[in-house]
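User: As part of a screening pipeline, I want to sanity-check one entry by hand. Below is the sequence and the SMILES for zinc ion. Please return the complex as structure tokens so I can compare it with the automated output.
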Amino acid sequence: MTKVQVCRFFFKWIGYNLPMNTLNITFPLERSEIVSMLQHFKISPTRQRVEIAEFLFQRPQHLSAEKILDGVTRDGNRVSRATVYNTMGLFSNKGVVREVLIDRERVFYDSNPKVHQHLYNVDTGELIDIYDVEVEMVVEPELPEGLKIIDTDIVYKVTSK
Ligand SMILES: [Zn+2]
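Assistant: Here is the complex for your manual check:
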């Protein structure tokens, strides 16, 4: 059994149903679609926010804030580092993108709206999507009174054997 299979077996036991994301995206998003999407999330579509989102939603991808800054400026837009960081904070708070936290130095922003989990390869630094539509609630974690689960985020960290 590989390490990944061991993790997945474990996940079957601790996993719970994830809230389905209602976004139905066909990549790449056009500028007009970006504007409506931001409005849907109650975000004012400023020029810079639209440019950043346009870069993100070319395809489902995982990008660090620095990669986003590089990409957006390479496309000829003038966006500051602070704007990229602020915008990504706003986008993840509002649910436009998902923030995937590997550790303090590594945060990825994920434009893939489908329910999925991640494999992080510590050798290559690569983050890979994994889908498991059959994640069922088998054992629910014991929660303090009055709390309910609204989301979960699982990153399996893997390395070569
Ligand atoms: Zn992902």
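Points to compare against the pipeline: The chain has five helices and six strands. The beta strands are 62-63, 98-103, 106-110, 117-121, 126-130, 155-158.
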